[in-house]
Amino acid sequence: MKRNRTVFAIGLCALLLLGCTAPQIINSDPKQDKIQIIGEIVHETTAPSEAPDVDIHVTDPAAPTTEPTPEPTEAPTEAPTEEPTEAPTTEPTPEPTEEPTPSPTPTPNRTKAEAFAEEALSLIDLPYRRGGTDADGGFDPGGFVYYCLNKTGLKVKHKTSKGYSEVDEWQRVESMDDLAVGDLCFFRTPGNDAVNCVTIYLGDGKMIYPSSGEGKVITAKIQTNYWEESFVFARRVF
């Protein structure tokens, strides 16, 4: 009997040390060697070695305690996106202007070209003379051009019609349609292999030159079959 009480006391102490709550004791008959205890056990450990004869049965274990769900931490507030600074306004690049397409022939100097043509007209009806270079003795085509150019202020050497056609510094004009006042027109008349005649263009389809057939300085229409077939090119002096 004393031994049973001792065992009971040891078992009770063990339960208190192990954290049992509200234990219920049944069948605590002191005549029995075993004690059955029903209740909740927070921690289950091995009974102390001092009570090897105690047989403890635990029923209805409590449901495992779940850890509380941690409160979600608030996401850090993102720093506000800085507004992009406005780039400095640049002046628009001006569009390149198109270079004017050069005309096939240069624009003549009207003042000098017209003065040149007027000087030639002042010599109309003066006599034709082969190799002549002045108003007193008369002119051939090369001498006529030489005299009029020098009188206008352009100092040149005396040349033949062919010689003046070879002055490359004067702009070459390929077509009769592009002629301007004061242009020198070069012809190769039938029976000749090279340029043999030069005239001065007056405008409006007319030209002036000393004619061997007429024996004097005359004007003539340039757009005739004869002259159109004989035309080689022209040169723009002014």
What do you see in this structure?
- The protein is α+β, with helices and mostly antiparallel strands and 238 residues long.
- It has 5 helices and 10 strands.
- The strands form 3 sheets. The protein has a 6-stranded antiparallel sheet.
- A hairpin with a 3-residue loop joins strand 3 (133-134) and strand 4.
- The longest helix is centred in the first third of the chain and has 16 residues, at 2-17.
- The termini are far apart.
- Mean pLDDT is 76; it is low at 19-28 and 37-61.
Strand order of the largest sheet: 5-10-6-7-8-9
Instruction: Spell the H/E element sequence.
Output: HEEHEEHHEEEEEHE
Low-confidence stretches: 19-28, 37-61
Q: Specify the number of helices.
A: 5
Instruction: Note the overall shape.
Output: elongated
* β-strand number: 10
Kindly state the percentage of residues in helix.
10-25%
N-to-C span? 155 Å
Give the percentage of residues in beta strands: 15-25%
User: How is the main sheet built?
Assistant: 6 strands, antiparallel
Summarize this entry quickly.
The protein is an alpha+beta fold. It is built from five helices and ten strands, in the order H-E-E-H-E-E-H-H-E-E-E-E-E-H-E. It has a six-stranded antiparallel beta sheet with strand order 5-10-6-7-8-9.
Task: Furnish the topology, listing elements before pairings.
Elements: H1 2-17, E1 21-26, E2 36-40, H2 110-121, E3 133-134, E4 138-139, H3 141-152, H4 161-165, E5 171-173, E6 184-187, E7 197-203, E8 206-211, E9 216-221, H5 225-230, E10 231-236
Antiparallel strand pairs: 1-2, 3-4, 5-10, 6-7, 6-10, 7-8, 8-9
